[in-house]
Specification:
The chain has a five-stranded parallel sheet, sandwiched between helices. The protein has a two-stranded antiparallel sheet with strand order 3-4. Strands 8-9 form a two-stranded antiparallel sheet. By secondary structure, it is of the alpha/beta class. The protein has helices at 14-17, 20-27, 64-77, 95-102, 119-124, 141-152, 200-218, 220-224, 230-250; strands spanning 2-7, 32-37, 50-51, 61-62, 81-92, 106-111, 128-131, 185-186, 189-190. A hairpin with a 2-residue loop joins strand 8 and strand 9. It is elongated. The chain contains nine helices and nine strands. The termini are far apart. Helix 4 packs across helix 6 and helix 7 (200-218) crosses helix 9. Bound molecules: ligand 4FV. Ligand 4FV is lined by residues 86-88, 112-114, 116, 131-133, 135-137, 139-140, 143.
Length: 251
């Protein structure tokens, strides 16, 4: 899978490419990644990539010509690419979208600056508009990094352990179970016994219950909109009986 980032600050990605899972995925040729300077496609001698907004008002707008040239050049070099504009106007990014994007050949990520990009770019040069959340950033670069990070780790082999991503938060629309490592006792707090038992079925059952209950307590909206599996339903039924018993004995 390839990522071509279009930005006026390509150097912002230097460190990003060279750390952690993204670095590993690049080294193992699981992903091809490059950051391209939109300014290199600006024709005027000042290499301007922004200009004042028609209709007046504060701030600047990214000019369409350098952006269009940069997008077309990137698309020429990467057939099958989907072009993504990072914008608060877009569909809000989530794990399901990350999985969808990870099955594509590659992405051309357009990172805007200033007030945004000229609207005419969105008409026929952008395939997806994606937002990483309902807040306003100073530029699309950080949003681009979020997308590349979340998608890269879903590329088979990028995480090292083949199935590591399958057990992710949200892989089954549940929050991840609690994690523990050495020491067994930390400041008086012990690791749950079952995790030391080596009994894999009991450990999996414990982890599923941990996921279901953490999701119920922290993100009940996720449980409300998911089709519960039988084991998930049985866990919730067990806790409902427990709560009903507590309420009943209170009388
Ligand atoms: C953003 C977001 C975002 C808007 C104007 C960049 C800024 C500036 N991108 N998710 N939220 N972009 O705020 O993706 O050009």
């Amino acid at each position: 899978m390839f990522f071509t980032v279009l930005t006026i600050f390509p150097e912002m990605f230097d460190l990003f490419w060279n750390h952690g899972i993204v670095r590993r995925a690049i080294e193992h040729k699981k992903i091809l990644a490059s950051a391209v300077n939109i300014r290199d496609y600006a024709a005027d001698r000042h290499q301007a990539t922004d200009d004042r907004p028609y209709g007046g008002g504060s701030g600047m707008v990214m000019k369409p010509e350098p952006l269009a040239a940069a997008i077309r050049d990137a698309a020429r070099m990467r057939s099958g690419a989907k072009t993504v504009l990072m914008t608060p106007q877009g569909r809000v990014f989530n794990q399901k979208m990350a999985r969808e994007l990870a099955s594509s050949d590659g992405l051309i990520l357009v990172c805007g600056r200033y007030e945004g990009v000229d609207e005419r770019i969105c008409h026929d040069l952008i395939d997806y508009e994606i937002s990483i959340g309902d807040y306003v950033l100073t530029g699309g670069e950080l949003a681009g990094m979020v997308i590349i990070d979340a998608v890269s780790r879903l590329i088979p082999g990028a995480l090292g352990g083949e199935d590591a991503a399958e057990k992710d938060s949200f892989s089954d629309d549940l929050l991840e179970h609690a994690h523990y490592t050495r020491p067994v006792i930390f400041e008086g707090q012990e690791v749950p016994e079952v995790l030391l038992s080596g009994h894999h079925q009991q450990i999996d059952d414990w982890r599923l219950e941990s996921s279901v209950m953490r999701t119920l307590l922290k993100r009940p909206d996720l449980l409300q909109k998911k089709d519960l599996t039988r084991p998930e339903r049985e866990i919730l039924e067990k806790w409902r009986r427990e709560i009903e018993y507590i309420l009943q004995v209170q009388k």
